[in-house]
Design brief:
The protein is an alpha/beta fold. It is built from seven helices and seven strands, in the order E-H-E-H-E-E-H-E-H-E-H-H-E-H. Strand 1, helix 1 and strand 2 form a beta-alpha-beta unit.
């Protein structure tokens, strides 16, 4: 099983968020899950990869070639895939992942999160998506989702697809559940031409 983690690469990430990101990466690897992420070495992105590597995890970073000039690439990881476009990057992530964890981040993290939520809503993928919400980081987004639902733009059953987890203990519980329920099948529900 592979867990895809979306998170910010900002070097201005709060120190306690970095500690939690590293712990989550370690928890993923400690359960024998593969770790898929954006390929960087800074911010929460780098911290979570460091945690996975520290537990001997298999870490697959996927980054478009042009981003190498904007973000430091992590050359310590198990596997680095360079893509030509952001779309290609995300398609590989979505295909290889069995579940997604969204950590705090900026516009890029938000874009990835909203895309996988939309794809889940449209039944393009059927994979769980968890939003890690330390110190209420995503509370405003949760309020926005509820507001959109109250106005009829998000159906109740689609709101139920969005799972917020407030602590690393919550993440650990989810990872344990995924491990217990996983049947060993490959990730194959992505429509390859999307």
């Amino acid at each position: 099983m592979n867990i895809c983690v979306f998170s910010g690469a900002s070097t201005a990430s709060p120190p306690d968020f970095l500690v939690q990101a590293e712990r989550i990466g370690a928890m993923i690897a400690a359960r024998g899950f593969g770790f898929i992420y954006g390929g960087g070495c800074t911010g929460m992105m780098g911290a979570s990869a460091k945690g996975a590597l520290g537990q001997g995890g298999i870490v697959h970073g996927i980054i478009p070639r042009f981003l190498q000039n904007l973000e430091p690439v992590n050359h310590e990881i198990t596997r680095l895939t360079l893509t030509e476009t952001m779309h290609e990057r995300k398609q590989i992530m979505y295909h290889e992942a069995h579940a997604f964890i969204v950590m705090p981040g900026g516009l890029g993290t938000m874009e990835e999160m909203l895309e996988v939520l939309t794809w889940r809503q449209l039944h393009v993928i059927h994979k769980p998506i968890y939003i890690f919400n330390p110190d209420g980081f995503w509370d405003s987004l949760r309020t926005l989702f509820t507001h959109a639902g109250a106005h009829g733009f998000i159906q109740k059953n689609h709101l139920e697809l969005i799972q917020f987890l407030d602590s690393t203990d919550d993440i650990a519980d989810i990872l344990d559940t995924l491990l217990a329920e996983w049947d060993g099948t490959e990730s194959s529900d992505l429509i390859s031409k999307v």
